[in-house]
């Protein structure tokens, strides 16, 4: 019995040492440069004991593929509807570790000062990925520019496409463009629906410059920290999740982005 207990204690000690060594490794997190990497770099100062390695994403890099392949331990750039679509596309299951902030989607223009001035046959650039295309169409509907078919009343569960448009009084032309490229198209189109992070990177201030802005209330597009299921209980992930949802980070977000990025409470 003593021998068995000794072996069990030895195994437990070995496991503990292994976990400690694992936790000592840098936590690699892929993130969009703005605001995600900026928020993570603030956390590096806030919580220096967390060895955080921020991997800034470049255009064309799929952060979920990086995570699935083990090239990073987590990513921080996306919302739940996008994640679900990615899980289907990649045949993978990921774990949401924290819900952090909302970047309201906005409608911008270099040609018009308000949406009432937009003429017929105007061209509107929208994101070409499934979830953000749908999100853009719901935003256009909320601003009275189009009306979707009956049944398209829940942005979180109803994915709209241009074929879902029932009424288009201004005969708007919907042009699907890769999200990071849309800010560059502002001089070539009448309106552009731009994700908050890409708007910020382009020097736009969503709370001030957008002609129409997505509501933060009951918004299903909160940005999340995502990891692999086998790392969901990793103490480093838990520490980062705690930091991301801390009052200090919420205050940093409010001061740094002045309403263009909005901290949110954890969601179930």
TrEMBL record:
Q: Does the keyword Lipoprotein apply?
A: yes
Keyword terms of this UniProt record: Lipoprotein, Membrane, Palmitate, Signal
Q: Which SUPFAM superfamilies match?
A: Periplasmic binding protein-like II
Where would you find this protein in the cell? Membrane
Protein name as annotated? Lipoprotein
Species for this entry: Franconibacter pulveris
Database matches in Pfam families: Lipoprotein_9
The way it spans or sits in the membrane comes to: Lipid-anchor
Might you report a single GO cellular component term? membrane
| Taxonomy of the source species | Bacteria, Pseudomonadati, Pseudomonadota, Gammaproteobacteria, Enterobacterales
Q: Kindly indicate where the leader peptide sits in this chain.
A: 1-23
Q: Which family does it belong to?
A: Belongs to the nlpA lipoprotein family.
């Amino acid at each position: 019995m003593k021998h068995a207990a000794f072996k069990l204690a030895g195994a437990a000690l070995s496991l503990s040492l292994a976990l400690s060594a694992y936790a000592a490794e840098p936590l690699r997190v892929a993130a969009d440069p703005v605001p995600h990497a900026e928020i993570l770099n603030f956390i590096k100062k806030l919580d220096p004991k967390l060895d955080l390695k921020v991997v800034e994403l470049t255009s064309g890099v799929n952060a979920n593929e990086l995570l699935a392949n083990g090239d990073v331990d987590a990513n921080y750039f996306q919302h739940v509807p996008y994640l679900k679509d990615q899980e289907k596309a990649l045949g993978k299951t990921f774990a949401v570790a924290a819900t952090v902030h909302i970047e309201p989607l906005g409608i911008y223009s270099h040609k018009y000062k308000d949406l009432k001035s937009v003429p017929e046959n105007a061209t509107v650039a929208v994101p070409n990925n499934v979830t953000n295309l749908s999100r853009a169409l719901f935003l256009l509907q909320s601003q009275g520019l189009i009306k979707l078919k009956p049944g398209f009343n829940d942005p979180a569960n109803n994915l709209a496409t241009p074929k879902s448009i029932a009424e288009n009084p201004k005969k708007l032309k919907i042009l699907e463009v890769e999200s990071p490229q849309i800010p560059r198209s502002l001089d070539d189109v009448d309106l552009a629906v731009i994700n908050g992070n890409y708007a910020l990177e382009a020097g736009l201030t969503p709370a001030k410059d957008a002609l129409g802005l997505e509501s933060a209330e009951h918004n299903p597009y909160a940005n999340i920290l995502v990891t692999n299921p086998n790392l969901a209980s990793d103490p480093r992930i838990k520490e980062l999740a705690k930091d991301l949802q801390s009052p200090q980070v919420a205050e940093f977000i409010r001061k740094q982005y002045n309403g263009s990025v909005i901290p949110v409470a954890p969601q179930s």
